[in-house]
Amino acid sequence: MTSFFPLKILPLLVPAVFLIVLGIVWLPEHPELLENAYIHSFKTAFIGILLEAMPFVLLGALLSSLLRVFVPDEWISRWIPRRPVPAILFGCLLGILFPVCECGMIPLVRRLMQKGMPLYVAIVFILSGPILNPVVYGATLTAFRTHPWLAYARMGLAFAVAAAVGLIIYATVTKSPLRLSIRRESGEAHQLSARGGRLVSVLVHTSDEFFEMGKYLIIGCVLTAGIQTFMDHGSLEAIGGMPLGSYLFMMGLAFVLSLCSTSDAFVAATFLHTFPSGSLLAFMVLGPMLDFKNSLMMLSLFKTRFAFYLFFLIFSAVFIGSVLASFWL
Amino acid sequence: MNDPRSIRVHYLLRAVLLLGFALYIAHLSQQDALHYYVAPKLARWIRLCPVPLSLMAVSLGIQALFGKSSALCDCEHQLPRSMFKSTALYGLFLLPLLLGFVLPDRALGTAAAARKGVSLTYVSPEEGREERFAAANPYQEEFAELAGKLYKQPVIQVHPEIFSETFGAIDLYKEQFEGKEVAVSGFLYREQGAGGDSFAVSRFLVQCCTADATPFGILLDPQTQISLPADTWIEVRGKLHTAEYQGKTVVQIIPETVTPIPQPSTPYVYSNADSVAAWEQISSSPGVTEAK
């Protein structure tokens, strides 16, 4: 980038400003252009998901920046057990301490990894955190008041899947799959010299994280809202008629709907009659671990190959786990 | 790495966008429009968001205007370097703001309900009764208690605060409620079918945000013909009746009157943790009794 950034931006800034002015001044006077039920459903779904995720993204970004500025690296490595099995248990239980929705998870986990958290513990935390926490447990129990064992099964399966994927990652991945190499020594020195001291540097960091994650979040919201607006639930339910088809269908639905882990149980509950309970379990376990918006975020954190390896592991673990669980249920 | 000068420009742009988000959320909560998008329990948290957002904007602004050049560095979070990438990034963030400010806030209606499929029965079904846990099932106890209270009413008023619970209780004991008088309000859902249109009075149940909104509806007797357009808000009074609809036993209303009403201030309904207590509270408050 050369020195005169503002001048270079001008040719693009002018039409952009023109469009904005047009949008604000002219469009409201011509509402008939926008009188379209699809646009309204789209907007309502899009803004709804975005607003819902906003507090969690901000919280995740804030926690991550606080960790970045105030917690020395040695602390993290001291807290985490050295041996894999206790470390995986530790990763699963972290979710109880940080009840962050999956959208806030990635910035927090990236920071923890930069502070020295081993990869497999981080993965276990990403997978279990959004499910194994008191808020989600309460919500699931409320949604399945008639079938409380589904709530227990959800917690159990999430734990099993997270632990299994963590163990496989521990055994198979040795090289760092992070996209950005970790530059630990470079940051600390000049962040302290930021104007306004540590507090301002926390806030600057938070907004960096916000923009970093926000773009994936917004793309995810656009896709999800589009699917919600144009996809017919009824036409897809026919696919669910086959015995294993229902599992695949519910997992696909969980992926494209990108619901928040505290509310997906209520949506799952509306399928209670049409689908076997094992497939609802798959829906509720896969959704928080893997969906549109968070897979985009994971792709930003991990190298593409590793990310797809991880997606595959999650998918197959949830599939096998929920089919097995359905025999027991 | 970007040079300090362009970092300042990025920071300023970001500060403006963050302020935009803060203003948008503040605007929504001031206009009392947040409930079009999220459930009240979540709206509490969203109302707090403008505080960190504007603090972030201010500190970015301070960095951009007064920060020492040596302290400005994007070594950890890469700022976009090419023009194209920057425009794409900030354009993406402008999108929700533009959509939010330009389009009016409007509740979900028939178009969305048709996509999602209106539920005509409630979650707790017949098979629930044969379940092994049925005896000690607090959910059905709650419904049973609510149903008992509703049954004593001369006209069952379906309050929006406990819409889904009332509906659930009636659905669970539909045989006993046969012929009872009911009054319910919602938007008119019209479904084109082979044997003419069918109508339902519906509400969206929102748990968290509009993404999980599920439409619930009570079918109106197929003999009724309504000339009102879809999405009109109506109040229906009539008698409950069970009937077969698309292979399922569902509760229907044989309407006596269908009156258009203005859209209520909260168009969606939310679930209630303790519907019996909520019912007691609503029916003991003076405002409701005059509604007959």
Automatic annotation (TrEMBL), chain A:
It comes from the Bacteria. Coiled coil: none annotated. The keyword Signal does not apply. It is a multi-pass membrane protein. The chain crosses the membrane at residues 6-27, 47-67, 87-107, 119-139, 151-173, 238-259, 265-286, 306-328. It is found in: Cell membrane. Pfam families: ArsP_1. Keywords: Cell membrane, Membrane, Transmembrane, Transmembrane helix. InterPro entries: DUF318 (IPR005524), UPF0718 (IPR052923). One of its GO terms (cellular component) is plasma membrane. Belongs to the UPF0718 family. This is Permease.
TrEMBL record, chain B:
Keywords: Membrane, Transmembrane, Transmembrane helix. Coiled coil: none annotated. The chain crosses the membrane at residues 12-30, 45-66, 87-104. Residues 13-118, 136-270 form the DUF1980 domain. InterPro entries: DUF1980, DUF1980_C, DUF1980_N, UPF0703_membrane_permease. NCBIfam families: TIGR03943 family putative permease subunit. This is TIGR03943 family protein. The lineage of its organism: Bacteria, Bacillati, Bacillota, Bacilli, Bacillales.
